[in-house]
C-alpha cells in the first residue's frame, strides 16, 4: 500500500499513529495538538480514512447511492453497512406517519421533555414501547447515547461501583464517568472475571451488559452473568440496542430470548437500529421511570425527540409487532450468510447475530480491502484500531430482513473474491 | 551533550491494565496517566538485552506508567510517553551511568535476567537478591522496521526532566493477549499493588536488533 509508506509532515509514516495518538497531550496550549493531528490526517484520509462519512444520496435501503469520498462519484451499491435490521425506516407506512406528523407538529419539539417539549405522540410512543417490552412504563431519550449516559448517571453516584464489559459501548462508559462511580471493567463476556471483580466491590453495584456486542456480533452470556450478579447483590442493566425487536419469542430482546426478562433489572434500547429511526428508551417500573424523569440530565437538558421521528418510530414499532415474519426473514438471512461464509472460508469470528465482522486482521490492509469491495459494488465500513484491538481490523456487516438471498450471495462473492485477491487468510 | 546510543538485541514490552488509583501513587504530581478505559491505566514492563553501550553489555528491567505526552509546537509528535518509576540493571556500572546521566530511579542492587526464546515467545525471568521479581512472556506478530519517538519523563530530588528517546529496530506489536506476567512479592515493586496488575498484556511489543537513541536531557522544572 503505497500511501501507507508515505511520511507525514513531521517525517514519520502516518501508520505509526492513529486516532488514539491524538487524544492525550499536555502542554501550554490546547491548540498544540491540532498541527500534529492535521499532518497525520492529511495522509490518513487519502490512504483509506476517506471511506468514513461518505454521504448517502438515498434511503438506507438494501441498495444505496453512495458518494465516493475520494472521487466524488455517486454509485449504486448493495448496502450491508446500515443498521435498519428489519428494513422498516423507508416503509411507506413509516414515511406517511412522519409526513402527517410534520403537518401537525412542524419540525421539532422546541423544548425540553420536562418543560414544553413533550407532545401527545411522545406519550403514545412511550406507552407503546412499555407495552411491547411488557413493562409498566418507559421513558424516551433523544439518542441511544443519551439513554445510557442519562440512565447510569441518574442512578449511580460517587462511591458506587459500575461494572462494565471491556467491550462496552462508549455511551455506557461515559455514563459511568458522569456518575462519578468507581468503574470496574471485566473481561469480555466473562462471568468468572465478573465474579472476581464483584467480590472486591462493596456497596451499590450495577453490572452493565449489551444484548449483542456491536463490533463482534456475539450475544451476551446473560444467564451466567445474571447469576453471578444476583449472588453478589448487584443490579443488572442490559443495553439491547442491537437486539430489541429481533431476539426472543416476541422480539423483546436477548433477555426474553434467555427467559430472563424479569431477572434483569433494567432494560434499555434504541430506535436507531432495528427500526432505523433515532432515539433511545428505558423500560421498567413506574417508580423507576418517574425517578429517571427527574434525574436523567442528558434527557432533560436536551430538546426532546422530534415529534416527526416519534410518529415514524411508532409506525415502525407497529410494523415490528404485527409482522413477526420480518424477524423470521432476518434470521433466515443470517443463517444463509453464515453458511455461505463458512463454505467460502470467510472468518466472521464469534458472531452469532445479524452483526457480522469480516475479519481482515491486518491494519495496513483493511482499507485497501474495503476500497476494492466498494469498487466491486458493496457498501461496507472498515473498522480499525482503536475501535477494535490492533490487528483485529475488520469490515462490519449488518444483515437486514430486506436483503434477498441474491443480495447476500452477491455479497459473499465480492467479499470472498477480494479477500482472496488481497491474500487475506481465510479459515 | 550529543545523542547517546545503546544497541540492543531484544527489547520486549508488555502493557498491562491496572487501576488508575495505583498509577497515581507511582507518578509525580505533574504527570497524568493515560487511561485505557475510565479508571484503568497502563503499567508497562520492558526488558532490554543491551549489547552495546558506553558501559558495555547489560540487562535492564524498566517498570513504567504510560503518561500523557507533552505536546509543543514545532516538535515531532511522540508515539507515546512513559514515566519509568523504577529501573533495575544487571551491572553497577549501568545503574550508576543511568542515575548520573538520566536521573532514572533505580533498584540499588544488581539483578539477574534470563532471556529465553522458544517458538515465537520470549520469556524473561528477573530475580534480585535470590528472590524472583518478575516473569514475563511476550509473543511475536509480524515484524517490520520502525523508528519511533517516545518521551521519557524523569523526576528526582534535583528536578523533573524529559528525554526524547528514539527506538529503532524490527518491531512486532499485537493485541492478541497471548503473553503473560507474574509479579512476585519483592521489594522491587514498592508501591505497585501487584495483585491489581492484569496477568495478561493487552498489548505485546517486541523489538530486535536495534538501537535506543537518547536526545540530551531537558530539565522541565523543580522536583
Query: Order of strands across the biggest sheet of chain A?
Result: 3-9-8-7-6-4-5
Instruction: Summarize model confidence as the mean pLDDT of chain B.
Output: 95
Shape of chain B: globular
Quaternary structure of the protein: heterodimer
Under CATH, the homologous superfamily of chain B reads Acetoacetate decarboxylase-like
Q: SSE order of chain B in H/E notation?
A: EHEEEEHEEEEEEEE
CATH class wording of chain B:
Mainly Beta
Helix content of chain B: under 10%
Sheet with the most strands of chain A? 7 strands, mixed
The unreliable regions of chain A are: 1-6
- SSE order of chain A, as H and E? HHEEHHEHEHEHEHEHEEHHHHEHEEEH
Number of helices of chain A: 15
Can you describe what's shown?
- The complex is a heterodimer of chains A (427) and B (223).
- In chain A, 38% of the residues lie in helices and 15% in strands.
- Chain A is of the alpha/beta class and 427 residues long.
- Chain A is globular, with a radius of gyration of 22 Å.
- Chain A has 15 helices and 13 strands.
- In chain A, α3 (92-105) packs antiparallel against α12, α7 (191-198) runs parallel beside α8 (222-231) and α13 (325-344) packs parallel to α15.
- Chain A has a 7-stranded mixed beta sheet, with helices on both faces. Chain A has a 3-stranded mixed beta sheet with strand order 1-2-11. A 3-stranded antiparallel beta sheet of chain A has the order 10-13-12, covered by helices on one side.
- Chain A has 2 domains: 50-79 and 324-427, Aspartate Aminotransferase, domain 1; 92-322, Type I PLP-dependent aspartate aminotransferase-like (Major domain) (Aspartate Aminotransferase, domain 2), CATH 3.40.640.
- In chain A, a hairpin with a 6-residue loop joins β1 (63-67) and β2.
- The model of chain A is unreliable at 1-6 (pLDDT under 50).
- With 223 residues, chain B is mainly β.
- Chain B has a single domain (4-221), classed as Acetoacetate decarboxylase-like, CATH 2.40.400.
- Helix content of chain B is 8%, strand content 57%.
- Chain B is built from 2 helices and 13 strands.
- Chain B has helices spanning 20-26, 92-102, and strands at 4-19, 35-37, 40-52, 58-67, 80-89, 111-118, 121-128, 131-139, 143-156, 159-174, 180-183, 203-214, 218-221.
- In chain B, the strands form 2 sheets. Chain B has a 7-stranded mixed β-barrel with strand order 1-3-4-5-9-10-12. In chain B, strands 6-7-8-11 form a 4-stranded antiparallel beta sheet, with no helix packed on it.
- In chain B, β2 (35-37) and β3 (40-52) form a beta hairpin.
- Chain B is globular.
- The two termini of chain B are 22 Å apart.
